Amino acid sequence: MSSINKLTSLSTQTLSLILERQRFPHAAATHDERIQGNMQALRDGIRELGSGTEVNGLRQQYERMRGMVGGQTLEDERELPPPPTPRKSQEQVYTPYTDDPDPDLEAGIMLQEQRRLMDDQDNHLDALSHSINRQRDVSLQINSELNTHTALLDGLDQDLDTTHSRLSTARRSLERVSKGVKGNGSTVTIGVLILVLLVLIVIFKT
After folding, report:
1. Cα–Cα distance between 106 and 15 in angstroms, integer?
2. How far is CA 141 from the centre of its chain?
3. Residues 140-189: tens digit of each pLDDT
4. How far apart are CA 40 and CA 104, in angstroms?
5. DSSP H helical segments within the chain, as ranges?
6. What is the pTM of this model?
């Protein structure tokens, strides 16, 4: 079953489209199909709801909008069944139709549209702020990780420098030992030969 709130919202949207259609006739074709669909949905919804004070208000607004689009490019809407006749007959007062929209009604619709646009902008700004805050947090986390990696690389560079210094010292020590062995090679050989000769003399004497 159609909701009175949904039909009221649909009626407001349709009236806004009709006013925009009247204000910009060159763009009427872009709104005709949507207006016709909304009018059809309103008609079916009002018929489904039957009678009631709120339904009668929707019915009157529907008839007003139907008169506003009558005689133009939209397809004619079939008449809605009349509202229930009250027990006490009262003389109905008909308001003559005019092509000029009601200033108060138009101002109310424009105010409602402005509020809706402001609410949408607030929602977009909130989402943008949340996204910026999240990106800022991610950036701070990345910066912290980069600082950690930089510290590790600095420590590695220091270790490499220390290792290189130790290797250079060991290489110089080996070079000195090698030079010493080469310079004293003959002396060591003579000493070994003398030692061997002494051992042989001792052996033969015994």
Report:
1. 9
2. 20
3. 999 999 999 999 999 898 989 888 888 888 888 888 877 766 666 677 77
4. 26
5. 4-23, 29-49, 53-69, 103-183, 185-205
6. 0.35
